[in-house]
Each structure stands twice: as C-alpha cells, then as structure tokens.
Amino acid sequence: MRIKIEIDPGLEEEFLTIHCKELTPDILKLQNMIEKESKASGMFVFYKGDSEYYLNIDSILFFETQDNKVLAHTRDDMFETKYKLYELEKILPQAFVRISKSSIVNTKKIYSINRNLTASSLIEFKGTHKQIFVSRAYYKILKEKMERE
C-alpha cells in the first residue's frame, strides 16, 4: 500500500480519498479508524448544573460511572456527559481504553500505574491528585495499549 498526501490550500474542508483496486477488510478497517479519529478529535459537550461546557476531548483524563451518570474528569474538574460508556467506547479516539466495567481512561494522560497482584491497580495522572483503579481483568489490555503508544 502506498500513501500519497496532496496539500491544497484552496480547500475549505479536509477531504480524504482512498483509491483501491477492491474493497478489502483492511481498507474498511482503515476507513473506520480514520472516521473514528476525525469525529473524536474535536470538542465534546459536557454539563455541570445548568451550564454546557465545550471541551477538547484531549483534556479528559478519564470517564467513570457514578449514580447512573457518566462523569468526565479533567485535571481540575468533573463534568457530566449524556453518553453511556459503551457509546463512548465507539466514538472516542484510540488513546481511550476501558479499564473496568465502570471506567474508560485516556492513556495519553497516565503518569504511573501502581500494580497490585491481588487487587485492582492504581492509575495516577501527572499534575493532579486524581486517581482511578484498573481492574485485574483489564490490566493486560491497558498494559498492551500503553506499550504500543
């Protein structure tokens, strides 16, 4: 497969064309990956009380469920989202990974993981007091994801 990038300053919107001999599973996978990244790389709407906040998804450390709500944690704050965790898994960039039945973490923001062999391991983030646990069942998936990035 060859990749060719043409820059056209006259375009008002980014446009991507894939030229292929036939539609293969690899091409479909590439299309889905590009669509997912482009949709999720912008602003999301979050809520706090009666106010709406428009935040870049990269500012989110993790999502967690609490009292039938899905909360998004930034370094200094916490917001509510209207999405369910399973919906977020489909639309978030690849840097986000499920770490328990009730949490999704942004792997780009992880500073350390304090491993516990008999229980959940503790994830810490740089520049904040916030922490979250990765369950034993999801630890291997998270570790593999962290090593690939």
Q: Topology of this protein?
A:
Layout (H helix, E strand, L loop, with lengths): L24 H16 L2 E6 L2 E6 L5 E5 L2 E5 L4 E4 L3 H7 L4 E5 L2 E4 L3 E5 L6 E5 L5 E4 L1 H13 L1
Antiparallel strand pairs: 1-2, 3-4, 3-7, 4-5, 6-7, 8-9, 9-10
Can you tell me about this structure?
The chain has 149 residues and is an alpha+beta fold. The protein has a single domain, classed as LytTr DNA-binding domain (OB fold (Dihydrolipoamide Acetyltransferase, E2P), Beta Barrel), CATH 2.40.50. It has 3 helices and 10 strands; from the N terminus they run H-E-E-E-E-E-H-E-E-E-E-E-H. The two termini are 22 Å apart. The mean pLDDT is 87.
Keywords:
three-stranded antiparallel β-sheet; 149 residues; alpha+beta; 33% strand; five-stranded antiparallel β-sheet; 10 strands; single chain; OB fold (Dihydrolipoamide Acetyltransferase, E2P); globular
Write a compact overview of the structure shown:
The chain has 149 residues and is α+β, with helices and mostly antiparallel strands. The chain has helices at 25-40, 85-91, 136-148, and strands at 43-48, 51-56, 62-66, 69-73, 78-81, 96-100, 103-106, 110-114, 121-125, 131-134.
